[in-house]
Amino acid sequence: MEDAAVQFEDDSESGIEINERMFTLIGAAGAVMNLVAFSAVGYLALESVAYGVIAGVFGSVGSYLFLPWFMGISAVQEQVEEEIGFTEASRHVPASAQLGVLGAGLEVGSIVAIGVGLSLAEPDPLIGAGAAIAATLVIYLVGSTLLDV
User: Distance of CA 90 to CAs 42, 71, 101, 114, 120, Å?
Assistant: First the structure.
């Protein structure tokens, strides 16, 4: 039986240990929670289940991609003895930096979609999805430029 404590795997190239599987499980749990939360907001606040599900799918995929990458960066920064920057730490994470930045954009896109839906007199899922895609692309462009990925 495996111990409940977090087990780390050694990355022999950098000497940094990261448990990618545990982070992926946390990302999956976050994805399920986002889907439920955004669907509930769509149903209760916007009176449109379809709108909530669209925002929820954006947020779910975003959480699944972003959380493991971001937690891996935190683990790297905690394990090294000297202080390293965010960009340098992201190079030691097994998860893809491009997918992590895309995940952050998708999460922001889901929030923008709900915001747009709340600002419209009648929520339109196509307008919400368009706003979510636009926000996702902006965040991805800025994030990938800053991280040089």
Answer: 34, 10, 11, 30, 39
pLDDT at 14: 53
Q: With beta carbons less than 8 A apart as the criterion, state whether 55 and 114 touch.
A: yes
- Given a contact cutoff of 8 angstroms between Cβ atoms, the answer to whether 112 and 132 are in contact is yes
Please choose, from the candidates 66, 32, 39, the residue with its C-alpha nearest in 3D space to the C-alpha of residue 55. Answer: 39
pLDDT, tens only, 14-48: 555 567 888 899 999 999 999 999 999 989 999 99
Residues 6 or more apart in contact with residue 106 via CB below 8 angstroms: 58, 59, 61, 62, 65, 66, 132, 136
Query: Whole-model pTM?
Result: 0.82
Assigned token pair, 134: 């636009």
CA–CA distances in Å: residue 115 to residues 20, 39, 131: 33, 14, 9
